[in-house]
Design brief:
By secondary structure, the chain is an alpha/beta fold. It is built from ten helices and 15 strands. It has two domains: 138 residues, serine acetyltransferase, domain 1, CATH 1.10.3130.10; 117 residues, UDP N-Acetylglucosamine Acyltransferase, domain 1 (3 Solenoid). It has a six-stranded mixed beta sheet. Strands 1-4-7-10-13 form a five-stranded parallel beta sheet. A hairpin with a 4-residue loop joins strand 14 and strand 15. The chain is globular, with a radius of gyration of 19 Å. The chain starts with a helix and ends with a helix.
Length: 274
């Protein structure tokens, strides 16, 4: 997939250069001057993460090593680009995703940090985490395990803890926390299964499982396990129905009233909480 995504990115880049000359230098630097997706990605993200202490050149080298050590990383990147393009109506091209969307950038910076963490380069991984938080407003512990096809929509304020797991094809909106319930040690963060959609401002706390294809309403507080293919809403979150499709992360439908199975009492309760 990544080779097809890369060719599409180059085609879109050439179109932008011809249509908007003021961006030509930027587009050439970020895309057209590169031979592959990995080179372009490392250039874009490294220049955003670099500071007075660690240069963009050094961070690019870290990415290059990560692409070798973590052999699925670029495949995951391609799935992430496609996920955002397919799910976000504001992302009208692959080029927009790779150039402009900080949620996508934050995920790729985390992939680098996680690769470093796995190599026991923990201080460097924490540095990348810190810069990611400062630059993109997204704070993900380097040890967090993240699958592919992940979308962070808007992304600002997302916080994800050390022992959290996010499986494939998950969509998470701004101001979401996947956190613990206190200062307990060990496995203490949520496990988000494939196809889950988590609405803006939701807090999922503790070592609990959010089942495959579940949906969490905006501003909900989830303190207990969520069954697969259910919708939960409220504070604390309660089951109010079932999503109308098997993969809410792809449909991005956040209106739980569309489920068609919500009871009047539940609707009254949850609307009061939002």
């Amino acid at each position: 997939m990544r080779h097809e995504i890369w060719q599409k990115l180059r085609d879109e880049a050439n179109e932008v250069v011809s249509r908007e000359p003021l961006l030509a230098s930027h587009v050439y630097s970020c895309v057209l001057n590169h031979e592959c997706l990995g080179s372009a990605l490392s250039f874009i993200v490294a220049n955003k993460l670099a500071d007075a202490v660690v240069s963009a050149f050094t961070i690019r080298e870290l990415f290059d090593h990560a692409f070798v050590k973590c052999d699925l990383m670029l495949t995951h990147v391609a799935h992430d680009i496609k996920a955002v393009k397919d799910r976000d109506p504001a992302a009208d091209s692959y080029l927009t995703v790779i150039l402009n969307l900080k949620g996508f950038h934050a995920i790729q910076a985390h992939r680098l940090a996680n690769c470093l963490w796995q190599q026991n380069r923990k201080e460097l991984a924490r540095f990348i985490q810190s810069r990611t938080s400062e630059v993109f407003g997204v704070d993900i512990h380097p040890a967090c395990k993240v699958g592919h096809g992940i979308m962070f929509d808007h992304a600002t304020g997302i916080v994800i803890g050390e022992t959290a797991v996010i499986e494939d094809n998950v969509s998470i909106l701004q101001s979401v926390t996947l956190g613990g319930t206190g200062n307990e040690q060990g496995d203490r963060h949520p496990k988000i299964r494939a196809g889950v959609l988590i609405g803006a401002g939701a807090k999922v706390l503790g070592n609990i499982e959010v089942g495959e294809g579940a949906r969490i309403g905006a501003n909900s507080v989830v303190l207990s396990a969520v069954p697969a293919h259910t919708t939960v809403v409220g504070v604390p979150a309660k089951v109010v129905g079932k999503p109308s499709c098997p993969c809410p992360a792809e449909s991005m439908n956040q209106n739980f009233l569309d489920d068609g199975t919500t009871t009047a009492s539940n609707a009254s309760h949850t609307s009061a909480m939002l």
